[in-house]
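debug: dumping io for the single-chain case to check the tokenizer round-trip. Nothing else runs in this session.
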Amino acid sequence: MDGGDLRFELTGNWTRWRDAALRGGATTAAANATASAYANGIAPSDFYDGSFKFTQFVGTLDLKKEFDIGLSDPLNLAFGAQYRRESYSLGQGDAPSLYVEGGQSFPGYSASDAGTLKRTAKAVYADVAFRPPYPCGLRNMI
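debug: decoded output
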């Protein structure tokens, strides 16, 4: 699921961008028709190795305005902020996927590997940009 981008003019000729998006995915891991190292010779050939899931929310706000200060190009002033929240989960595999090394192709995720981790990040920025006047003739050399 994705959010959308919204751009519009504010009073005083400020341009504003706002974006919000929720993204993610989930899947399971399995090994089918594979060998294993069971000691009794009776070994399963299908294993449930576990699952993983990732979600991410990002919200952004950007503001920009140009000012005519008498140079060849206007002065550009911009600033903005972003908030990000992420979550990652790992689910435990079944018992046969963990016995000895599980399936030969891939061992299952153990209980010590399973869990959910989360983090957030916040950022802000500011930008001022302008084209300075060039001394006599230098503009043509650059």
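debug: round-trip ok. The two ends are 46 Å apart (CA to CA).
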